[in-house]
Write a structure and sequence with these properties.
The structure is a single chain. With 353 residues, the protein is α/β, with parallel strands linked by helices. It folds into two domains: 199 residues, no CATH class; 104 residues, no CATH class. The chain has a five-stranded parallel β-sheet, with helices on both faces. The radius of gyration is 24 Å and the shape is globular. The termini are far apart. The mean pLDDT is 93. Pfam families: DUF5694. Keywords: Signal. InterPro entries: DUF5694.
Length: 353
């Protein structure tokens, strides 16, 4: 009897080991799915704020034409959401104090703090008409500003006729001036995402950046050493990237930025950036493992950003989604979004042809 029990126990112990050796490809689970597949296009972008002062937003028009042909129904941007801004403000010792734009002026105009404004946005969008009036657009723009969602506020502002871009319905003169300042900012969230969203008649863009996992915690006495170690790691792998950035600089000065975006979104260019960010950093030697710690934070940030993107189309299977993000994030976005069930990654190179 004891011998039999021993045999059974040995067999039971062998089962987990056999399963542990099995390799699962989760990307195949949707091969027989029913229903529409979601199409995600990730546009890797330069940060427009770093371009020469002579930058003209009209240089983006040829690229915007191609992105418009994709007809995205959802557009995401590399910005912190109002919810996360509010979270950080309530926990400055965890996330830091200098985190998001100040909403004092918008709160004074609307009487709403960030949570109340977010609730107001949700309520307005739930009943958003096919043909909103100018008053409705001004009111929603004010709510977005109070909710710390400036790009969405600008999206609404752009859809107003010139004669209707004035104070009223929650927008006071201070907020109107703020929207004017936003219009003049060289920022891809405004000059690419918001402009395209307005062109397509979308009510908003979606902020998906996330810094809740990359606020690296090292002792204050080690902060300088940490930064120096990570910078040295990046520098050690920059030879190819330095050459690429010279080409970028030349393309950035052109009156048409479409060739620049074609260049930076090429697979070989994406690989160069990925290797600097993670490859060279993981190869770097450090007694305290600082470079590896930085990569941990980088990947957590990207994982949470990807999850935030997924949340935007959670209830909309088959949606066409455009994600505008700093080009260094694109390899991670393509890899991880492409592993999600029912999601196809659209070739940005073909879209920009």
């Amino acid at each position: 009897m004891n011998r039999c029990l021993g045999i059974v126990a040995a067999c039971l112990l062998a089962i987990p080991a056999a399963h542990a050796q099995t390799k699962f490809d989760l990307t195949t689970l949707d091969k027989d799915m029913s229903g529409p597949r979601t199409q995600v296009l990730v546009l890797g972008s330069v940060h427009l704020s770093q371009l020469p002062k002579e930058f003209d937003p009209r240089s983006l028009d040829p690229m915007l034409d191609r992105l418009a042909a994709f007809r995205p129904e959802i557009i995401t941007i590399e910005a912190i959401s109002g919810e996360q801004c509010d979270l950080a403000a309530r926990h400055p010792t965890i996330y830091g104090a200098d985190y998001c734009p100040d909403t004092t002026k918008a709160r004074a105009a609307t009487g709403l703090d960030v949570p109340a404004a977010i609730a107001g946005v949700q309520k307005a969008l739930a009943a958003w008409p096919a043909r909103p009036t100018p008053a409705q657009r001004r009111a929603l723009a004010a709510l977005f500003l109070a909710a710390n969602d400036r790009a969405s506020a600008y999206t609404q502002w752009l859809q107003l006729p010139e004669a209707e871009r004035h104070a009223g319905d929650g927008l006071d003169e201070t907020l109107v001036a703020m929207l004017g300042e936003i219009a003049a900012r060289n920022n891809e969230n405004y000059q690419i995402a918001a402009r395209l969203a307005a062109r397509l008649g979308l009510p908003r863009v979606h902020a998906v950046d996330d810094h809740t996992g990359d606020n690296i915690q090292v002792p204050e006495a080690e902060t300088e050493a940490f930064g120096q170690s990570v910078m040295a790691a990046w520098k050690s792998g920059r030879s190819e990237l330095n050459q690429s950035e010279q080409q970028e600089k030349s393309l950035s000065a052109a009156p048409d930025l479409l060739p620049l975006y074609r260049f930076i979104n090429q697979p070989e260019q994406l690989w160069i950036r990925a290797d600097v960010n993670a490859g060279a950093t993981m190869r770097a030697k450090s007694d305290r493992h600082y470079p590896q710690i930085w990569v941990n934070g980088w990947e957590i940030r990207n994982l949470r950003m990807v999850a935030n993107i997924h949340q935007t189309f959670r209830e909309r299977p088959g949606a066409r989604v455009l994600s505008v993000v700093g080009v260094s994030h694109k390899p991670w976005f393509d890899q991880w979004l492409g592993q999600m069930q029912g999601v196809d990654i659209v070739d940005v190179g073909k879209m920009l042809e």
